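Hi W., the phosphoenolpyruvate complex you wanted:
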Amino acid sequence: MTSITLAAPLAGWAMPLTEVPDPAFAQGLVGTGMAIDPTVNELRSPCDGVVLSVHRARHACTVRAASGAEVLLHLGVDTVGLNGEGFTAHVQDGQSVKTGDRLISFDMDLVGSRAQSLVSMMVVVNDGYTVDGQSVNREIAAGDAAMTIHGGSGADAAPTPAAAATADSGETAERTVPLRIAHGLHARPAAALVAAAKAHPGTVTILCRDRSANAKSVVALMGLGTVLGDRLTIRATGPGAQGVVDNIAGLIDSGLGDPVVEGAAAPAASTPAAAPAQPAAEEEVGPPFAPGEEALLKGTIAVPGQAVGTTVRRFRRSVRVAEQGAGEQVEEPRLRQALDRVVAGLTQSAQRMPDHAAIFQAHREILDDPELLDAALADIRAGKSAEWAWQRAARMQADALAALADPRMAERAADLRDLEQQVLTALSGKEPSVGLADLPAGSIVLADEILPSDLAGVPAGRLAGISMAHGGPTSHAVILAAALGVPTVVALGRQAERVPDGAPVVLDGNRGELLVFPPEDMLATTRTAVAARAARREENRRTSREDCRMADGTRIEVFANLGRVSDAPGAVVEGAEGCGLLRTEFLFLERQSAPTEDEQYQQYQQIADALEGRPLVIRTLDVGGDKPLSYLPLPKEENPVLGLRGVRVGLREPELLRAQIRAILRVKPAGICRIMVPMIASPSELQAVRTMVDEERAKLGRAEPIELGAMIEVPAAALIADRIGAVADFLSIGTNDLTQYVLAMDRGNPHVAAQLDALHPGVLRLIRLAVMGAKTHDRVVAVCGGSASDPMAAPLLIGLGVTELSATPAVIADLKAFIRTLRLEDCRRVAEAALGTDSADEVRRLVAEAWPGL
Ligand code: PEP
Ligand code: MG
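Structure:
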């Protein structure tokens, strides 16, 4: 038992907790302590200690004092709803702090006007502490002695031996319910949950998205980082476990004191009709398919083509780890040895992939971070296993980093998650998995979801196919897969998890299917078909460098979509007549900061050189939405796909855009590059970019004008293409986003992936409107979205008046060969008929009837 005095974390009017205008705090449900109505905008540490967690909304943070007291500092009342707006965290989870160190600063005007109250609470949230004295009902200065607390049983940190014994011997129960409150388990609902959990003698754990928390700890619950719609599993052990689980499930369902968001998922039991909307995670997954047990899994077409091969599983496994350890003497050396193994692996990876050595070096630096290790060792000393301690330390730091405004720190969150897994694997004694770059030829990768970084180092021709349980057909990983020419099927669902490693499979990217343990004759026929297609492609390549003219002589230009310098030479070999979309955001990935103007210029110049004089359409940075860039300080958004992305980011960060414009303007010979701007909704946005281009051109003393085009991805832009065409030199339709916005279907959501088809007549009608609008100014209309690579779409797009297709390089030779067989008249007729159908399926049937060979 110890006494410590906590310093005032803020200056202002100090008051007893009972006066706080929040019943959960006022009634002491969150913990014991006091409050301050602040007159300053900086929250400071009340003691020496370690930051246990900074809430993802940055309005609260918990510091653990050396005595073990966990002090929650909560700025304002009802501030979680600001979602971080107005708050800047200056510390991260696991960081050591001294009394008076700055923890969080906040914008008093913004927070004061938007929150219910600025009154801020300082409460000790773990059991066993009493307040000996408080300095309240007076003006207090930051750093003044504010409150003396006494005690320290550590009851929250782990169940008492008696409780653990009860838990071990008693019943267990588990139930999953959705969280239906807008801001997740923030202090107030967490306190209500803790109050219910504490009434139970056994253990109560809440699991959410592969993380778990002791339900008797407010800090642990807040640290789960839950959000609206999360599914919480309540697990209890000990006598009466079922009762406590049901009680807590009921409390969670009724909002734990917060208003329930109507329309958010209700508990599964009460809404059987809602089954289709349940996330894939709810699907029952059976045992692995046995050799010879033929199984057909249906997903969504992402990259067309067929492949025969053997599966290589790459599921990101969420490892559920045992909490209790075998003692400090055992667990600490285990953790240190595992860390050494991971460091050795990183050194090898850096040698194997020298181009990416910086990434592995950065990972080593993270592992060397003493604060991360200290946080894990502190838990080990408290009796936890090395796995549990490491997972908690890594996750707390990853979450805190992800929430930080400092872009460099935020960038490291994903690295930490990666390292969390690597160290857990090392602790399990298993061999670390190799990257996709190292797979044997003929592998068909099976994964929950492949990320762009997984594919970054894969040489063309190495992977035979990709199949994903989740993911959408237009994700960036799919775009990279298409560039590599790897047939890909997405959204196969969790049945994909039943496919064992090393199983023979046929992946049909044309039908969106994966056939597991197919009969021998089917394997043989598909191998023959794949070989025949490869031969035909070789044949088509022989003429692919020639201009593309339809059978009636109509000229159609076929360009390539590129993402990196190394794609360009291959695209030329495939027959690209230029690059119709350089997705520059790929140049901005895998970095700690934005590339400089010079670095960008060099990359663009190299691509221009590789295109040997062919036109190069460079799209300005298209980040935000499904392409976040961690070092760009964009606010967290509820619905980022409808928020700051594309040109909206460029106009908000003009220096970033201007540097890119200058880099493009410097490429020689002048006139080879065109600038294309993503996510244009109004002519004024393009006009603003044009002004920047003109200003930068003048500064560089470049006399030659440069063509400036608008991407048509927002339905409004298609509708007013005649107005946008007045400002743009050319238009290019991004069918991936246009389809997403027209059909109101998230392009990354596997549940709607099957219906997300750019050949929907609604999308086709907008394309026709865009073409008609552009015609009033005689502007060329290109298509650079995924449908430009879809042979079924080509005749329709051409029939609607599109004259340039920018496709993924791997399909260009075949696409040009097909277009050469088409006649404009037929294309117009079928396109006209397609506009009068009800569905994309009907459109595809029309195309298949008109061109049966497809
Ligand atoms: C599109 O939206 O169709 C497009 C080409 O852009 P991206 O896929 O990069 O968003
Ligand atoms: Mg787009």
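The pocket of phosphoenolpyruvate (ligand 1) is lined by residues 474, 581, 583, 622, 713, 734-737, 784-785 (CB under 6 Å).

W.
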